Amino acid sequence: MSIDALVDAIRLRPPVSARVEGIEIERGIPTGESGFSIRMSDDVGGRTAGVPVDLATCPDCLAEVFDPLNRRYHYPFINCTQCGPRFSIITGMPYDRARTAMVGFPMCLDCQAEYDDPGDRRFHAEPNACPACGPRLAVWDRDGHPLDTDEAALATAADALRDGRIVAVKGVGGFHLMCDSRNGDAVDDLRHRKRREAKPFAVMFPSLATVRASCRLSQTEETLLTDSRRPIVLLTRTGGPIAEAVAPGNPRIGAMLPYAPLHHLLMRDLGFPIVATSGNVSDEPIVTDEHEAVERLAGIADLFLVHDRPIVRPLDDSVVQVVAGAGQVLRLGRGHAPARIAVDGVEEGIVAVGGHLKTAVAVTQDNSVVVGSHVGDLDTVASRAAHTAALADLTRFHAIAPRLAVRDLHPDYASRRAAETLGVDTVAVQHHLAHVVACLAENGVAPPALGVAWDGTGYGDDGTIWGGEFILVKRDSWRRVGRLRHFPLPGSEAAVREPRRAALGLLFEAFGEEAVTMTDLPTVAAFDVAERGVIGRMLTRGVNAPLTSSVGRLLDAFASLCGLRQVNGYEGQAACELEWAAGERAGGAPYDFPVSDDAEGMLVVDWQPALEAALAELRAGGASDVVSEAVHGGLIAAIVKVAARVGENRVALSGGCFQNVRLTEGAVAGLRETGFTPLWHRRIPPNDGGLALGQAVWAGMTETAS
């Protein structure tokens, strides 16, 4: 093959797992060398090579693992250059076997011959192994005592799942807790033991055919499901055998296909979908070590299916959904992390620590920002330790010496303390500005642009809780040009857990003290007389009832008023249920959210006409689906109105509210129809998992400008 043909092949027909971000051609003088070899890398600094991500088992390896004549028949750790563990097993760069968890498994003669042969697909496949020289499988009881090994271990685990028991399975990036998804009692048992009352569980299906038996599947969703990164994909349920307890009240299922050889072997044996949720106690990091698993998960799992290949860093499964015809990452995990976003002019050495919920960290390097994998909420000692470890891992891995740490404005975030312990200068970036800048960076767009940052909570610089913001971003400055009309949150943080409080605050702002007497409304009826008295006094006196402009809390309030949810079982549940209530309704008239200027010239989106219309609808016997459609339609129209007033062509949609498919697709369509260019998230989560990207980029941009 000529050099030109090679370049064309890379450009037009790259390997399945390759991501070609650019090609630079430099002409050289032929040296007369013959042959091709890969030599041991020098251990030098300045590591800018992309980090390889974990890839699902390829078709060739899958064929071999089920071929009785192949030496890797039923071997649960088969891999090649097109598949297998990568980021989860790498201890350092450059990527050589000596810098992976496979260093403890010397290759046998057959594996070494494959590894050394340029014509073999296992040529320099760093995790290469076989039954003679590679990792082994075992099954342990809940006390950690071995019961079986290899194929017998797999059969024991499969029998336990068939019997309705819970099995902790060590995978690629950590443990899963698994049970029969068709068995409501088993699912309820898992919920009880894991202390996860209502949050949906993910489901692993044996095949596309079994997915179609339970879910509606578009071509885009099928492509995402079968992608080499194998994320969890949120799909609409249509029926099938899945127990209601898997995702109570939820019209969608988080579906995934087997991505490791171990999963393929297990699912081929079982033939039915199984719950596959993160192996942790709720709100703690995923467990990666088998001995730690016995210690932390023994009260949950009945059995442990383990192996002896170390997991270097925890990686939760990535979660994606389809929005506006394309995939959107909601959780950056296995297969998608780390994510490198090109950003011109950003200098190396900036470390961003993210926020408090759904946290991820990021570092700057070589005109780019590298965003690490999902860490989670920083509410526990274990999660804060995981955040610190993720920060150290990302900087060490990329050989970066931190010189500037970037954090959120919130004074009490644990991530702030993490930034301050780095021993370098720190700067704070406002929460919603970071959201908007993350969206711009992901889309490769430099300011100016109008940002719409809608979420549940963010620390504002005016003493209020932000969350319904319109931000005009320029190259080295920004200005809040609009917001949602304020309303009080009685109980402050308690209102995040109890949508009924947000709704009562909304009613009080609109109708005054009369609000607590409106017992015909499910919101008010959800409180007893004593509670109404206490909250009424809070609101009247303005004590522990901070003002907010949050669209997330507004959606919570409408969910409460519709009688959908008064107390959340997990973050965002009420707002999700309001979105689901609309179903596939279309064509209804939106509620009016008028836009006006306040005394300081800021645009204010007023929710009161929509509130009054919703109350009239509900009191007349109207259904929640009508209210939901009208609320969403009105908010979409408000975005377009503000964009028209501001006059900036590019409009970036970011923040947790833009995980809402109806809201995002409606805003994208509405902006396009009126001549604007909408930007939204695809590779980086719109939720707080994207904050670190925005923090790093804004710090880098302002540093360059100054």
UniProtKB/TrEMBL annotation:
One of its GO terms (molecular function) is carboxyl- or carbamoyltransferase activity. Keywords: Ligase, Metal-binding, Zinc, Zinc-finger. Involved in the maturation of [NiFe] hydrogenases. Along with HypE, it catalyzes the synthesis of the CN ligands of the active site iron of [NiFe]-hydrogenases. HypF functions as a carbamoyl transferase using carbamoylphosphate as a substrate and transferring the carboxamido moiety in an ATP-dependent reaction to the thiolate of the C-terminal cysteine of HypE yielding a protein-S-carboxamide. Residues 1-40 form the Acylphosphatase-like domain. Its EC number is 6.2.-.-. One of its GO terms (biological process) is protein maturation. PANTHER family: CARBAMOYLTRANSFERASE, CARBAMOYLTRANSFERASE HYPF. This is Carbamoyltransferase HypF. The keyword Transport does not apply. NCBIfam families: hypF. The lineage of its organism: Bacteria, Pseudomonadati, Pseudomonadota, Alphaproteobacteria, Hyphomicrobiales. It comes from the Bacteria. It holds the Pfam family HypF_C. Residues 151-335 form the YrdC-like domain. It catalyses: C-terminal L-cysteinyl-[HypE protein] + carbamoyl phosphate + ATP + H2O = C-terminal S-carboxamide-L-cysteinyl-[HypE protein] + AMP + phosphate + diphosphate + H(+). Belongs to the carbamoyltransferase HypF family. Pathway: Protein modification; [NiFe] hydrogenase maturation.
